[in-house]
């Protein structure tokens, strides 16, 4: 009876000790993929609704394929949240390669028009933007890559010369 109990305790102890190393099975020192917002294309601009196409590039620095499951994103212009959402689209990026994908979005900037006009008034002044989110990768086990990109845009760069 005592040997059975001892065997049970020892097997539970070995099980616990064996499972404590499982967390290290999934950690690796591989470089994280990079996501860049390459371009914002205006599809339609009406008073109450604007449609854009966000062009993203995913860089895979690893030696194996990268399966992308989807993207959750938030884009801020200055202090204004322009848009947020999710895009579920599976694709594979080859080793040491880049891939491009497009995300269609709809937004209503009408409630924020005053703030936008203030920012755009001085067309030569840079306006900060921020891209935040998570990209879900992995074929069987999900891995989340956190995104945070900051930059500036200069509105004058988007205005044709004759309209200035």
TrEMBL record:
Q: Which InterPro entries does this UniProt record tie to the protein?
A: LEA_2, WHy-dom
One Pfam family, short name please? LEA_2
Which GO BP terms, alphabetically?
response to desiccation
Domain Water stress and hypersensitive response: start-end pairs: 35-154
Record SMART domains: WHy (SM00769)
Official protein name in the record: Water stress and hypersensitive response domain-containing protein
Q: What is the lineage of its organism?
A: Bacteria, Pseudomonadati, Pseudomonadota, Gammaproteobacteria, Pseudomonadales
């Amino acid at each position: 009876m005592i040997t059975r109990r001892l065997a049970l305790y020892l097997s539970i102890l070995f099980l616990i000790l064996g499972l404590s190393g499982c967390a290290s099975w999934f950690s690796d020192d591989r470089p994280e993929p990079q996501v860049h917002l390459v371009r914002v294309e205006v599809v339609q601009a009406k008073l109450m609704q604007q449609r854009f196409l966000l062009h993203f590039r995913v860089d895979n620095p690893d030696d194996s394929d990268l399966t992308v499951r989807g993207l959750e994103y938030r884009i801020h212009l200055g202090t204004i949240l322009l848009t947020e959402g999710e895009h579920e689209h599976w694709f594979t990026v080859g080793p040491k390669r880049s891939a491009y994908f497009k995300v269609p979005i709809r937004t209503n900037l009408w409630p924020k028009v005053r703030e936008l006009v203030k920012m755009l008034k001085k067309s030569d002044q840079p306006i900060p933007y921020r891209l935040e989110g998570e990209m879900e990768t992995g074929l069987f086990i999900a891995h989340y890559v956190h995104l945070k990109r900051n930059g500036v845009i200069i509105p004058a760069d988007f205005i044709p010369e004759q309209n200035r």
